[in-house]
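User: Hey, my collaborator sent me this sequence without any context and asked if I could get a structure. I don't really work with proteins. Can you help?
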Amino acid sequence: MTRERHIDPLKARSATLFWLFGWYLRFLFWRKFDAVRVSRAGEPPTAITAGLSGPVIVYSNHPSWWDPTLYMLLAAIAFRRYASFGPMQMAALGKYAFFRKLGVFPIDPTTRAGAAEFLTVANRVLASPRGMLWVTAEGAFVDPRVRPVRLRPGIAHLARRIPNAVMLPLAIEYGFWNESRPGVFLRFGTPIQTGRHQDVAAWHAQLEQELATTMDALAQETMAREPAAFRSLLRGGAGMGGLYDWYRRGKWLLRGRWFDTSHQGSGR
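Assistant: No problem. I've predicted the 3D structure and written it out in structure-token form, which is a compact way to encode the shape of the chain:
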């Protein structure tokens, strides 16, 4: 094992750096995306966002490279009361070592020792009522339309072993509507309380079903292209960008009118 593997994730995390990085991510997503939208029918329960329900495990599908940074953005905007952590495969984390200071810890899901280490760290994170764990439960990039949804077994072991926590399904999609930049679309599913006496296989089946149900509901909403069905957590840039938008903006300002760069106007 390398020295880095033995770094304590709880001690390595810096709340100050996480806060600062959250503001950087707001700027980054503003630049790269049209908006980050969460389904009004699947917003995080108020009791969870208020920090009243004990530790939380958010588990999601894994459609994109953006998912870990999206987790951090959501933690910074919607779950500020929690100390957020998340696993990342060792090889990937080696390329983004700075993430260790943001609560990311290495895992090796290919070995029994690696799986055991994940459960050990997760137990420590979730020992605090303000602990929060974010997990790309599919374990690899998978298109959000692929069915059936298949999760790695670690998430079910976690649900069985952690008492008095909330499992919160999260469906994620990235796609284009009417703007030049893609949008991020989110929907949270029904919270599941851990601590019930059922075996790992039963937990695994339930968690897969709940996430698939949430993903199916989000797919219907994104296909409908109805902005009113979503709340914008963050609005990004719109229009063509570059010199042409500056030219159009200048023309409208000279006329004393505000220029809306978006293609679909106020419906955005």
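In plain terms: Residues 3-237 form a domain with the Glycerol-3-phosphate (1)-acyltransferase fold (CATH 3.40.1130). You can pass these tokens on to your collaborator as they are.
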